[in-house]
Amino acid sequence: MTLPARPALRVGLIGHAFMGAAHSHAWRTAPRFFDLPLTPELTVLAGRDPAGVAAAAGRLGWADTETDWRRVLDRDDVDLVDICTPGHTHAEMAIAALAAGKHVLCEKPLANSVAEAEAMAEAAERAAGSGVRAMVGFTYRRVPAITLARQLVADGRLGQIRHVRAQYLQDWIADPAAPMSWRLEKDKAGSGALGDIGAHIVDLTQFITGQTLTGVSALLETFVSKRPLPASSGKLGGVGGEGMGEVTVDDAAVFLGRFTGGALGTFEATRFALGRKNAIRIEVNGSAGSLAFDFEDMNVLHFFDGGEPATTAGFRRIVVTEPEHPYVGAWWPAGHGLGYEHGFIHQVVDLVTALAAGEQPTPSFADGLQVQRVLAAVERSAADNSAFTEI
Amino acid sequence: MTLPARPALRVGLIGHAFMGAAHSHAWRTAPRFFDLPLTPELTVLAGRDPAGVAAAAGRLGWADTETDWRRVLDRDDVDLVDICTPGHTHAEMAIAALAAGKHVLCEKPLANSVAEAEAMAEAAERAAGSGVRAMVGFTYRRVPAITLARQLVADGRLGQIRHVRAQYLQDWIADPAAPMSWRLEKDKAGSGALGDIGAHIVDLTQFITGQTLTGVSALLETFVSKRPLPASSGKLGGVGGEGMGEVTVDDAAVFLGRFTGGALGTFEATRFALGRKNAIRIEVNGSAGSLAFDFEDMNVLHFFDGGEPATTAGFRRIVVTEPEHPYVGAWWPAGHGLGYEHGFIHQVVDLVTALAAGEQPTPSFADGLQVQRVLAAVERSAADNSAFTEI
Amino acid sequence: MTLPARPALRVGLIGHAFMGAAHSHAWRTAPRFFDLPLTPELTVLAGRDPAGVAAAAGRLGWADTETDWRRVLDRDDVDLVDICTPGHTHAEMAIAALAAGKHVLCEKPLANSVAEAEAMAEAAERAAGSGVRAMVGFTYRRVPAITLARQLVADGRLGQIRHVRAQYLQDWIADPAAPMSWRLEKDKAGSGALGDIGAHIVDLTQFITGQTLTGVSALLETFVSKRPLPASSGKLGGVGGEGMGEVTVDDAAVFLGRFTGGALGTFEATRFALGRKNAIRIEVNGSAGSLAFDFEDMNVLHFFDGGEPATTAGFRRIVVTEPEHPYVGAWWPAGHGLGYEHGFIHQVVDLVTALAAGEQPTPSFADGLQVQRVLAAVERSAADNSAFTEI
Amino acid sequence: MTLPARPALRVGLIGHAFMGAAHSHAWRTAPRFFDLPLTPELTVLAGRDPAGVAAAAGRLGWADTETDWRRVLDRDDVDLVDICTPGHTHAEMAIAALAAGKHVLCEKPLANSVAEAEAMAEAAERAAGSGVRAMVGFTYRRVPAITLARQLVADGRLGQIRHVRAQYLQDWIADPAAPMSWRLEKDKAGSGALGDIGAHIVDLTQFITGQTLTGVSALLETFVSKRPLPASSGKLGGVGGEGMGEVTVDDAAVFLGRFTGGALGTFEATRFALGRKNAIRIEVNGSAGSLAFDFEDMNVLHFFDGGEPATTAGFRRIVVTEPEHPYVGAWWPAGHGLGYEHGFIHQVVDLVTALAAGEQPTPSFADGLQVQRVLAAVERSAADNSAFTEI
């Protein structure tokens, strides 16, 4: 038996590590729970290592493989290219895919530099003229509690926004003995905590408030500047100091900001917050209400309604699992929570829906570029004695 | 490309409502994240309505359909029958499937009566002699935090168990205007909150403690005895009282119990706890440590280690998303939480693993029968002025 | 300088251990924060040991001492007798004090038996005829969050009550090596966890709901039947088994109950819940709303308003520190929480206010007797195979 | 009866508003629970309005009154002057009191400017030569959970500190219709949220970490620049715009900082965080452990021990009410929480103990000056385009 008859959306995915697995699951699963206007097909998976990509394709459910990502762009049986590789490869791949007339879903951060991101946004704008669409993958927007937060702000339940505070806390390199990785090398990762996780809280706070940051003041810090090379790196040790690699990105980024509507923002992204594994914490205070969210309790949104009488006012713990909540009606009965991967599935839903309607999916490459400009301003401010730096 | 070459496990699923969808997702998804010794195949889906079952099969990913469940048992291309229908049908289906030499996975509660459950357990025991296995679906055992709780008790971290308190709180019929449903009719559902959700906390507390209940003292209550018939029920109203149906099951069940090791238990199952959607709350206090769990925060287990100095002792909020935690290594990095449906996936993993090893999967039908006996003792006690009733 | 000119209320306090210190603090402090109609005077403190009572009186602020409690009743300069001694002494003292024309504040539980409590309630009723008042000290009623809970129920915010669940969890004798104490001897303490802490949750749930229990079904348990005699006990060990004392009270009590309005109740009182120090946890579910309270977070009340739209409904965390909240206006600005001792201060405020108005303070001895009858029914049920026992 | 025979410490208190009431309660109550080496006597209360100060003295327990604060300094029966007036009066009063040979306890912030604070610190240093002591009242240091946090850091349980995040969130002027007050006028209050509440989190984070801030980068914001004059202000309105007053202080302050040990700090102080009443939230992440505290749950400290195995690691919710915890042994049994006012009582305990021992109480005026320098650097940075500004 097959899914309801719908036109196909044939997908080519580049990359099959953590993000590739998450995207594959989303492409496979979205049409099982949502009635999509196009039916995704897992057409081809690209990866450099023939054995690796073949094994991954089998495990993840892809019909075919390529070992050169450019071949994916050449194929007539691919409608959309999904880019799940490290940031330094995004610009080339995305621009080429758009030029080849393929829709593009590109993982965040959009690129490793503003220049690259600008080129990508321009390519996306050009492509849009012929109905080819590009989207950047800030999936946390699709956690139902976050989407609900956006709706409450848009509905005016918070009034004028005064404060935004956002933290993205991890601890996976808090131990100085944790080994080197490409994520700690500037030429591959672009930046450290800033681009990897700071990008998410920049996007999320802008998404929830419907405002953008106008400037920032920042500090960057690298707590551990040298780390052991991983045993599997295959490098031969030389004389003296061999076996250690240099960390060339930030371990942590903290910054202040102002939003277009006048709110103050405080931001912190770090991989050294021992005991916090993936804590995305966002709070917004407005003149009429307040919100609080923590990804460690991802099915919950806290909402304070300033219109309540003092006697019974309090932050409400909204368990965001009701059929009335965003995306939730397609899933389980109330109280049966969702997990990390559902954001990716909802991303597929929104993307496919926009493509079928001939509309621009969000966040667009222009949105991704704007986040990139915030990250660049953070780096400039940090290099300029924390001076407030306009975006 | 295909999954790693493994022998197939060809599945026939009966029922395609809430549980059918959850099981289908699990069969589809388990081999994508876990390296299973057998590869599940979604061979056939059975349902009474031809159009309905065909649509469901397409959406849920089944290759074929049947409109008579007995036909599933006749098929040579089915190795395992998965029963996701209401409780009053379980006994007949499961016994027939085992007799036909099919492995069986049967949703909980095992049956609507002890007599049925006994017959099922006997059938399972007979079938085991020829290597045919039966398992009952208490999936919450496979929530990683619950599995970890079991491990901590088994490792002696709690010492001698003194207290068990368990609540399963929902609120979907708290409103007297909520309509009738088969779940409120004794001949179909067997019992109300007791069998539907009370069964889960009986199983979970016995699983975590490694002990069984020896007796109970109980109260049952039906708060709302008549409810409007649903508009879709198609029943014609007669003279007087038409349009209302009689609730013939319990709305809530509360009971005390004693465990084999001497612990006291308090239990509550209700669908009238306004504001609690699917709150499975379990606490265990022992001589050496304590545990607390709430399904509303399902990725967390709270553990108190009585050996800590008083100055720094406290309940630890363990975020059960580390690679070292049960089942978690197959999923996402630390801090990226799982959802309701993962319990079903883990159930498939354990079931398939046991089948491949020729071992008895747990919980067995004998385990399900034992839970049924507890539920029966609850009903007898409630009918006998709450007298303590042995199991 | 002196407090505002008010008639004096001259107090004689019997007992100067834990409760004596808490009451002394309340008598001293209440007029400093509340504008009382009578000014308490700490006239005399009674205790058996001359040196001990003299030291306590100095430290706690009492003007004079007596070593025989009967002497307090004889004094013309005493208007009210405050009884803070163990339960087996309450009846004699309170009845004599009332007969002597003194108002009485008596610590809970009112007595160690229903018979004693009945005699006390009768004495109180007689005394009331001549304007002499008696009150029992269930101070937790005066925690602002609890008082607010009562108000919300009285205002109809919960609708019809369906569920009450209450736990009083401590762990101070979870260790079998914890020594004997008078609190573990039936002839002094009357009962164990049941009367000591179970009495509080019986009173609190009845206070909050405005209903009384009509019957109970119970289990009692003594986990550790022998304990080492304390080094300071001065008892000479005999031959065999010397050095150990027998625990003659319950270590834990669990019971089910029905309330006058039809609600189901589940109760648990224990001193073996490792990691819980003084956790009084109360939840109430009604047809229109729900409440949750935990004394470990005593300045907070959680309230679910069933009238909220599903999208924004959730338990509100009310921080009960607003000027609009009960008792709070006399204290600090919003957000500056109160502690355990404030319940005692509020008790003084309510008692003094009632006395000045010539009204009956609550809870009365009749209320205390009713709690005693619940405790007795619990014991009868436990002795009668947990049979449901009317009160 | 009297307190144990001890030398007296005769106190003169200046000011009898919120802080005066809190200090009076502390002076009255400390010797009732702690065995102090000196017995505080509430000798004299000073206030400008004769009727007001007389009423306050009676209510708060002071023996005598003065209407000119200088008269308190002249009195031979005063050993210590306790200053509870607005910040712009601190320098003059404290310097004069020290010159008169009186010990001084001065509320925070130490002064409204660095120049004043420097003069005060110099005066304190001079006075110390003759055994006269000065202390500034950062009372939150004496919340037991905070003191415990300091101990854990000092004991090395956190390792090297990497992150400090601190927020002091209130909402009492979030409403633009909230009236003017002296706290919103720069010449009286010195600054707004920065000095009033920001000072506390600067002191607390430095106290807990045992480090000081070396520089800051800051933003200040005034969200509501004009507010209605209070009805009681007695000011005559002029022509045009009468009835509104100008807010000349910050409504909110956010800043980044670096600590001496290399940690990054993020700070936020605001009175516009709707729904947060007095939320002092502090988190510290180190290489070996982490801490989290929120004054909304003031009896709790969360501690993550990085040395725990991953399987059972988690933030421990330490209920800081054990006899082993700082200050707690003098109060109630475990689990019986303390309130806001206890910090002031513990402050008296520590101050009196230091005075009796002839030692410098902490925090000293030098400590208060250092905090003032941080606040000044925040203001300079905000005025200098957020440039990182050394302290």
From TrEMBL, chains A, B, C, D:
Name the UniProt record assigns to this protein: Dehydrogenase
Keywords recorded for this protein, A-Z: Oxidoreductase
Keyword Oxidoreductase attributed: yes
Ranges of residues in domain Gfo/Idh/MocA-like oxidoreductase N-terminal: 9-127
GO molecular function: nucleotide binding; oxidoreductase activity
This protein's record includes keyword Oxidoreductase: yes
Native organism taxonomy: Bacteria, Bacillati, Actinomycetota, Actinomycetes, Geodermatophilales
Source organism of the structure: Modestobacter caceresii
Pfam families noted in UniProt: GFO_IDH_MocA, GFO_IDH_MocA_C3
